[in-house]
Amino acid sequence: MYVCMYVIMNVTVRDALNQALDEELERDEKVFILGEEVAQYDGAYKVSRGLWKKYGDKRVMDTPISEMGFTGIAVGAAMAGLRPICEFMTFNFSMQAIDQVINSAAKTHYMSAGLVPVPIVFRGPNGASAGVAAQHSQCFAAWYGHCPGLKVLSPWNAEDARGLLKAAIRDDNPVVFLENELMYGVPFELSEEVQSKDFVIPLGKAKVERQGSQLTLVSHSRPVGHCLEAANVLAKEGIDCEVINLRTIRPMDIETIEASVMKTNHLVTVEGGWPQFGVGAEICAKIMEGPAFNFLDAPVVRVTGADVPMPYAKILEDNCIPQVKDIIFSVKKTLNLL
């Protein structure tokens, strides 16, 4: 008699990212990490913990506080055939280097007629944290998702973090990898399959986190958890929601969203970013232009961050970020239950 044992571990998002970095540094000697405090200090958020001691100065490099400078170095290294992982202490600071990210990294492969790939990963915390005010709270999913030449990833849980980061490092295109600071310490169960060194998540493919029949909720990053929580609350009232985790902002898996909308006939998008020209706005446009439009029984509703720079005060901050109650309200409004 044989007993099949499945090993399931609780792993935080931070540790999942750390494992992915470790395994890719070990797998490919062309991979290296650079950024502020990533080496001797183990990273500002401890994502690169232990990697400098294991791989040394040539593979894990501390840089001066100059995003434009070290991003330019990383882009040049990628053009020369290496695979840099460039950490921004927060993606708000990537604005200092946006010329390098867009004009150098994103456009070079196209402008060189495919002769010069730029295999680089730009990673770090994105979106609102807690009590860090306007200059540290923006979501850049729509900013970078707007730009051809980039792939843009937005993981939610530990599985996303591990599988998407490994895929991003192996990709020959520049990838913007948008983590969430408030998720770093959150543990998730990881199956034996996900723990494998060979596990990667295909870029450009969303995941249906919860099956449902009455309404589709689409989200990315931390709000995916809010959507699942809202769906569980609504289920107790007899409202059955499907929850889609986008995972990839660009290229966007609109086919999975369309298939869900054709089943549920209702759509609510949820994101932490601003409403104007946002990820939800793009999903609305794509549904409007595609075959799923004819299946909608009500207009698409967007749940977004407030259209203001983030306030510092906690009570104001809470009112600027989508909460579970906001999702529940929007679902009931879309289903004409209010």
Automatic annotation (TrEMBL):
One of its GO terms (biological process) is glucose metabolic process. Transmembrane segments: none annotated. InterPro entries: PDHB_mito-type, THDP-binding, Transketo_C/PFOR_II, Transketolase-like_Pyr-bd, Transketolase_C. GO terms for cellular component: mitochondrion; pyruvate dehydrogenase complex. The keyword Hydrolase does not apply. Its main location: mitochondrion. One of its GO terms (molecular function) is pyruvate dehydrogenase (acetyl-transferring) activity. Its EC number is 1.2.4.1. Residues 11-186 form the Transketolase-like pyrimidine-binding domain. The keyword Oxidoreductase applies. Its cofactor is thiamine diphosphate. It catalyses: N(6)-[(R)-lipoyl]-L-lysyl-[protein] + pyruvate + H(+) = N(6)-[(R)-S(8)-acetyldihydrolipoyl]-L-lysyl-[protein] + CO2. Heterotetramer of two PDHA1 and two PDHB subunits. The heterotetramer interacts with DLAT, and is part of the multimeric pyruvate dehydrogenase complex that contains multiple copies of pyruvate dehydrogenase (E1), dihydrolipoamide acetyltransferase (DLAT, E2) and lipoamide dehydrogenase (DLD, E3). These subunits are bound to an inner core composed of about 48 DLAT and 12 PDHX molecules. Interacts with DLAT. This is Pyruvate dehydrogenase E1 component subunit beta. It comes from Pelobates cultripes (Western spadefoot toad).
